[in-house]
Amino acid sequence: MTEFFGKRWHDMGGDPAGPITPEEHDFALWEKRVDALMVLTSAAGLMTTDSLRRVLEDMGADAYETMTYYERWIASIAQNMVEAGAVTTEELGAKMAEVRARGATYGAAS
Amino acid sequence: MKVRIKSHWPPGHIRTPAYLRGKIGQIERRIGLFNNPEETAYRQTGPQRELVRVRFRMADIWGARAERGEDVIEAEIYAHWLEPV
Amino acid sequence: MPHDHHDHEHDHSHDGLSPSGHPYRADNDTDLSYWQAMEIALRELLIEKGHLTAAQIHAQINAMDSRSPANGARVVARAWVDPEFKAALLADAGAASRAMGFDIGPMHLIALENTKEVHNVVVCTLCSCYPRNLLGLPPDWYKSRAYRSRTVIEPRKVLSEFGLELPEQMQVRVHDSTADMRYIVLPAQPEASLGLTEEELAAWVTRDSMIGVGLPQAPQ
């Protein structure tokens, strides 16, 4: 008999779960941009689908329950870009502050 | 060809689902060579690994809990996760 | 009788519209979140450093926008009317889709044929793998804990929650998309649709029937 000796949170097949709610939403522009960043940075060799997933898995179950899909993706892509040496955390911090200073909405900050 | 999925539990980015480890199935088709996600997840690139589709009877995975024993699951498993039966 | 035609039809009550009379763009007028700020910052940094261009991002968004279940529906409809195409699709679904003119990029695609004896359903228990380069982005429920956990252990119960009851004598095949392959179910052509043209048939093929949680149905 197999013991689940070290099964990780994301490895969900067969776990008990509740009803499936047929949720869907139209993707916002910022979400489509996140998706595009993943595809393009992977094509540029800066990350892979596997490194995207590895970082998502390492975020833990809490992130899955509290963050939206593309929130987790941008967090993963950002970490991947730092790991790749494409950006530094210092640069991200400065740029994010600059972005926020532009305005209070996504449109104003774009 | 009958195969068993290894009951190994390494840390890291593994694409062999826990519910299939230690289970016995049949090779449904061989797919060819692909990068090993266990390595590429960490920016390592070793030799490509063979990927195989394996078919499992629900009864062999879930036992008495299976809705219908002869329903099946098919999953892609890397060859280094297979052992002979 | 000439009609007085305006470029924009204004809802003069301004219900839900900006003062100019145009609908608000929901995304752009929401409060900037931490993660949205990260997206803007990361995108701009990567462009500044020459890793990407704004044009590439624009093109990729357009490419994904052009991918939708309608593409898969056309592939299925062709397989229903053309036995040679169906055989090619089952042998190499990626090549067959490309031959129809769809740009699916490097995606490896396998088509799973539903028959009188077999019903196929696709899930990714480990994350959210989906044939996005043909069907577009997956629905939220496909990525949910409940779908990912339950489909491999109680597929018939899951399908009945989607309104699909299968006879006991049919075999259910659950495909867990664990690695490099992506899957599209080739649903069986409904008897009521026999004799329709390929174009008419495409309207019968729903996204859910290509995931395997539904069957094709007459267009609404």
TrEMBL record, chain A:
Return the Pfam families for the record.
NHase_beta_N
Tell me which SUPFAM superfamilies the record gives: Electron transport accessory proteins
Q: What InterPro entries does the database record attribute to this sequence? A: CN_hydtase_beta-like_N, CN_hydtase_beta_C, Elect_transpt_acc-like_dom_sf
- The portions of this protein that span the membrane are none
In terms of superkingdom, the source organism counts as Bacteria
> Residue ranges of the Nitrile hydratase beta subunit-like N-terminal domain?
8-102
Q: This protein is called what?
A: Nitrile hydratase, beta subunit
The organism encoding this protein is: Planktomarina temperata RCA23
UniProtKB/TrEMBL annotation, chain B:
A matching Pfam family: NHase_beta_C
Q: What SUPFAM superfamilies does the database record attribute to this sequence?
A: Electron transport accessory proteins
Q: What is this protein called?
A: Nitrile hydratase beta subunit domain-containing protein
Record-annotated Nitrile hydratase beta subunit domain positions: 2-84
Instruction: Enumerate the InterPro entries for this protein.
Output: CN_hydtase_beta_dom_C, Elect_transpt_acc-like_dom_sf
At the highest ranks, the source species' classification is: Bacteria, Pseudomonadati, Pseudomonadota, Alphaproteobacteria, Rhodobacterales
Species whose genome carries this gene:
Planktomarina temperata RCA23
